[in-house]
Amino acid sequence: MKSQQEPLETISHQAEICRFNADVLYRVLLLRIAKQYSPQEMSFLMGKPLDFVDKIERLQNMSFYLDDIVKMNKVLGSSFHIGCFTSSLSPFIKAEKELYQLSRNVYDDHITYQLVMCLDHNKTVNVFILQDNNPLSDYFEHSTEQELASLKRIIETLLQNGYFDCERCPFEIFEKCKSFLSDYIKPRNLYIALTSFTKRKEHPKLQYKKSKELGYYYIKKD
Prior knowledge:
The protein is of the alpha+beta class. It is built from 8 helices and 6 strands; from the N terminus they run βαααααβββαααββ. Helix 1 (19-35) packs antiparallel against helix 5. The protein is elongated. 24% of the residues are buried.
């Protein structure tokens, strides 16, 4: 753990949730941090609104559909263990809800997350503490510029060669671009690059659309 100075900001959220929700929250946070994704980046790769994961981590959206868990499993990898959720979903839904509080402490270069169960008489029981890099910190601006330029060239080539003639989900595009670069890329840089193709005046250009089955996707604009 890094030295704990005074945080720049502390945000706390409370909600009555069941153990299943607390378990999903822990796994989402742990694996998102391991993948080095911000909440917005994970939401983007899932084809969900950009605040989808942030609302989960704020305890504001704890209603999960099977489709959401499938998308989490795809983005976070097989270690998300979709089977353990689907097999235990029924008993936990019926479980009694408890009051939990998630506190997020923001520092210059990192963020800590602490979940506690709130008991009577202002007592709490610690559930977990996790630490993440601050996604707003970018110590490699030159590298970011190079990555954006590379991604824009790849997208231009894919667009010209018909790749976007059909619907393409963000995670599918992410994996395709990684195959060209043979390296880790930041999802937020892919989002910025794709957005530039939806906003440019000349054709061909992209559309950012939404469907019930796919969520948000990209397709060539006629």
